[in-house]
Amino acid sequence: MAHGRPQDVDSSPWLVAGEPPALPLAGAPPRKILVVDDEEAVRKAVVEMLRLDGYEVSEAGDGHTALRYLAQEPFALVVTDLVMPGMDGLTLVKMAQQRGYGAVYIVMTGFASMDSAVEAMKLGAADYLPKPFHLDLLRLVVARALEKQHLAERAKQAEVYEKLAHTDGLTELYNYRFFQRLLSVEMSRAQRFQRALSLIMLDVDDFKVYNDVYGHQAGDQALRQLARLLRRSSRSYDLVARYGGDEFAVILPETDKKTAAEVAERIRAGVEQTRIEEAHHGWGWHVTASLGIASFPEDAAETAALIRKADQALYQAKTRGRNRIALYRDMDA
Length: 333
Description:
This protein has 10 helices and 14 strands. It has helices at residues 40-52, 63-72, 89-98, 114-123, 135-166, 176-193, 207-214, 216-233, 257-273, 303-319, and strands spanning 15-16, 32-36, 56-60, 77-81, 104-109, 127-130, 133-134, 197-204, 239-244, 247-253, 275-280, 283-286, 289-296, 325-327.
């Protein structure tokens, strides 16, 4: 085929040439595209058009070859014919999806195989091109599919960053900053609707001794295991956070002090029965925890006071012998 933009492709009844439209992805970095078609004239015309637009393009004459390429390197986009001998395009899309190849798929089809195009779309193909199609339409469909993929990647990346912003890296619980935001939101809701709200503050007993004896790496492992236990012991709508160091906090929406005490006791018993596994050469270690509880509205009317009083109750549990819960109201008992 002559070099330059293919203006005349009469050798194939499936393609029509024309003047190039403006591309949505103009100026974007090259992305890898795989073109799959057993009809060489069609395949070569599509490949040349996409290369002229700056894409890095590979080609395959059948589905089996395409799967080998997909296994060897990542492609952003696959443009495949549906009607091919050996392995048709629908089977190619199915197998590629099953193997987890993270490409976007565009299928080319004659009207006789339109049902297969619909099936390909159900499998996740981004678009289809009914033959005969204009080469410039191909360019726009490819550009649109890649732009949608790019936006989806950006959204996923933003979601990851958002999670990192409110998650503690060690325990994967909410971090201190996000805990403060969550408690403020729950306090505002409790104040507005005059609903109960409780807070549990938890501290691991003698954790400094554990760190000193077995090292900080074992201590980190113990905190991760305790975080998993806290998630299991809490209710699905409770909000569990790492407050700092070996101290944790559990926000209990719509929960009075009596129910909060039941949740706290379940957590305390669970910690006491937990054996910290593989923390130091296969030996186990039993840890305990002290917990303090304060509630809205009986103990505090705003967020800072609720934290302070739950922390005071925690201190009381420590001074009374550890491995116990203390309610703010019993502090003088």
